[in-house]
Design a protein that fits this description.
single chain, about 210 residues, alpha+beta, 5 helices, about 30% helix, binds zinc ion
Length: about 210
């Protein structure tokens, strides 16, 4: 057998069929995360989307007439450190990388925090007040652990590459205008333009 062939049972976690479990904050648990990037100007990927059965890219016009204004869905690759429930790093040091998809509200929170604590140089702690709606509180940490050692940083950047590709593909489906018309059935949905209804719906669905 050639030496570069691996043998395994079902424990091989490198085989994921190109599907990645998305990060979800849990109520009563504080997570310590870092946003993974190689270029500090490229922290997120995102696009304006609608949701009807699935996320799809806004093409302007018909989709907005039926569903109301489109909103950004944003993604980034994050490292979730292995911590206790208060977000304190546990020994031995370990971590998992996740795609994190979030709504405009979470982006705004990150942006506010970034003014005083750059998310490029500080990890963040996430507390969750509502799991279903993914209402989260974000606080900065002193340092960015994943970047503390060049060797660890290089390893993590390599591991993050396929997840970054997954995020760029996975923001929303790129439907044609005809496909959007088929999906929306041509009948305006009741309450579709009600911004208060849409806001809550979006924040739930953006985490699906
Ligand atoms: Zn639209």
């Amino acid at each position: 057998m050639p030496s570069n062939v691996e043998v395994f049972g079902f424990e091989n976690e490198n085989i994921r069929g190109n599907v990645w479990e998305k990060y979800k904050a849990k109520k009563g648990v504080v997570d310590r995360l870092g946003i993974i990037f190689s270029d500090p100007k490229v922290l997120f990927a995102g696009n304006k989307v609608h949701f009807k059965d699935r996320f799809f890219l806004c093409k302007g016009g018909y989709c907005c007439d039926i569903l109301g204004p489109s909103k950004y869905r944003i993604g980034s690759v994050i490292i979730k450190y292995t911590t206790d429930k208060l977000g304190n790093i546990k020994q031995p040091f370990d971590y998992t990388l996740f795609p994190w998809m979030f709504s405009e509200q979470t982006y705004t929170k990150l942006k506010t925090l970034n003014v005083d604590f750059s998310v490029a140089t500080h990890d963040i702690k996430i507390g969750c007040t509502n799991e279903d709606y993914q209402h989260i509180d974000i606080t900065p940490c002193q340092e960015s652990i994943w970047q503390a050692k060049a060797e660890l940083r290089a390893k993590i950047l390599e591991e993050a590459k396929p997840i970054w590709d997954y995020i760029k593909r996975g923001i929303a489906s790129d439907l044609s205008v005809e496909e959007i018309k088929d999906l929306l059935g041509g009948t305006p949905t009741a309450g579709g333009a009600d911004p208060s209804t849409k806001l809550d719906l979006d924040s739930v669905l953006s985490q699906v």
